[in-house]
Specification:
Mean pLDDT: 96
Number of helices: 17
CATH superfamily of the largest domain: NAD(P)-binding Rossmann-like Domain
Function: Catalyzes the NADPH-dependent rearrangement and reduction of 1-deoxy-D-xylulose-5-phosphate (DXP) to 2-C-methyl-D-erythritol 4-phosphate (MEP).
Domain 1-deoxy-D-xylulose 5-phosphate reductoisomerase C-terminal: 150-233
Helix content: 40-55%
Family: Belongs to the DXR family.
Binding site for Mn(2+): 154, 156, 225
CATH class of the largest domain: Alpha Beta
Low-confidence stretches: none
CATH architecture of the largest domain: 3-Layer(aba) Sandwich
Number of strands: 11
Keywords: Isoprene biosynthesis, Magnesium, Manganese, Metal-binding, NADP, Oxidoreductase
Bound molecules: nicotinamide-adenine-dinucleotide, magnesium ion
Number of domains: 3
Length: 398
């Protein structure tokens, strides 16, 4: 392609919260005049996927669900957009030549297509946390091998990327992740034991997908972000701090050896981070809300409570034990979260399940290959499933 050709981009998980925001940013930055859309992907919502693909003139639309191939094909008929379905089709789409890919699929399901796009050499805008949490340095190596850039979209990591002075790396002491504290910040443990999925999905500041919103309520989202930050910025576990900041105005901070702390601030709107990843090192013009400091008037901070939010303690344990601990924590967490959503376990039991799986599987072995990552993930999922179904006692000594 010549320099003057529009950039070729794909959006994995285009039907989700990150995906829809990405399409919105793309439209603001000129749409099909500025970009040529290769692939859009989704899973359940094939009507939305087809509408998106037709509207932006995508080359191919892929649903991860094989059973929805006919529905997608029908919704795209006559449009000229190719239809495909299933996990292998997702990978085939990721292997197409692109300049930039949004990794906006939720969970471990995002790992395989993201690695395929990274190997192909595309820049990866990383919203998905599970790639780094589960595969850590192995994922980095895939990016380096392909030669594309890794641009963090998770708001905290994007904030850190913005204030992380790469040429001053030796004087960076710590990373301070901010956490809103979620909807249960002020509840006691007794109240937390009986919360419902709907209550947990109601995030006070951010509008996001259901699963990440519930993870924010349990602070498993912050737990994943601690591990993500350690890998992304090559820090030691003790260099990653968390502070609760209920207003979500400071998106995260970096502390330097002279005592300076650099922070990135903004309205809680993912389009800022998405736009940054799309035009880096330039900054795009975006219609997001501007901060009005006089009306904000105050910013609050408090220490996180690891008694009520054991997820933070579990993240620290995973970071310190290394190996495939991140894959074990995440695999168990994904299953526990599904079990909470379908009503088979309570809110506080999610952390119990994850802790028990981590105790029994240890660090899951050493991170030698992506296959080893999947094995640790499967082992953790199977055990978490048994625990959630009540077939294994949590107190049983293995
Ligand atoms: P979402 O649930 O709204 O959307 C998820 C997307 O992934 C959808 O397109 C869905 O169809 C697709 N998907 C779901 N399961 C799949 C599977 N098994 N195979 C293939 N595709 C599948 O989620 P979201 O809130 O947009 O989050 C996407 C990712 O970005 C997550 O990893 C999340 O942690 C991260 N993230 C999201 C936000 C946010 O503001 N929503 C912020 C930071 C990070
Ligand atoms: Mg985040």
């Amino acid at each position: 392609r010549s320099q003057s050709d529009p950039r070729r981009i794909s959006i994995f998980g285009s039907t989700g919260s990150i995906g829809c925001n990405t399409l919105d940013v793309v439209a603001h930055l000129g749409g099909s005049d500025s970009f040529s859309i290769c692939a859009l992907t989704g899973k359940g919502n094939t009507d939305l996927l087809a509408r998106q693909a037709i509207a932006c003139g995508a080359e191919i639309a892929v649903t991860a669900d094989e059973n929805r191939y006919t529905a997608l094909k029908a919704a795209l008929s006559g449009s000229g957009v190719e239809a495909a379905a299933g996990p292998a089709a997702l990978i085939e789409a990721a292997e197409r030549d692109t300049d930039w890919c949004m990794a906006g699929i939720i969970g471990m399901a995002g790992l395989a297509p993201t690695i395929a796009a990274a190997r192909r050499g595309s820049d990866i805008a990383l919203a998905n946390k599970e790639c780094l949490v589960s595969a850590g340095e192995l994922f980095h190596r895939e990016i380096e091998g392909g030669g594309g850039r890794l641009l963090p979209v998770d708001s905290e990591h994007n904030a850190i990327h913005q204030v992380f002075e790469r040429d001053q790396r030796h004087s960076i002491e710590r990373i301070i992740l901010t956490a809103s504290g979620g909807p249960f910040r002020t509840l006691d443990a007794v109240q937390m034991a009986s919360v419902t999925p709907d209550m947990a999905a109601a995030h006070p500041n951010w509008s996001m997908g259901t699963k990440i919103s519930i993870d924010s309520a349990s602070m498993f989202n912050k737990a994943l972000e601690m591990i993500e930050a350690m890998h992304l910025f090559h820090m030691r576990p003790d260099q990653i701090e968390v502070v609760v900041h209920p207003q979500s105005v400071i998106h995260s901070m970096v502390g330097y050896s002279d005592g300076s702390v650099l922070a990135q601030l903004g309205a809680p709107d993912m389009r800022t981070a998405i736009g940054y990843s799309l035009t880096y090192p330039q900054r795009p013009a975006l219609p997001v809300e501007r901060l009005d400091f006089a009306s904000l008037s105050r910013l609050d901070f408090e220490a996180p409570d690891e008694e009520r939010f054991p997820s933070l303690r579990l993240a620290r344990r995973a970071m310190e034990s290394g190996g495939l601990s991140g894959a074990v924590l995440n695999g168990a967490k994904e299953v526990a979260l599904e079990a909470f959503i379908d009503g088979s376990v309570g809110f506080l039991e999610m952390a119990d399940i994850v802790e028990t799986v981590m105790e029994r599987l240890g660090n899951g072995g050493s991170a030698t290959s992506i296959e080893a990552v999947y094995e640790a993930d499967h082992a953790a999922r199977n055990m978490a499933q048994e625990l959630a179904a009540g077939r294994l006692s949590k107190s049983m000594v293995s």
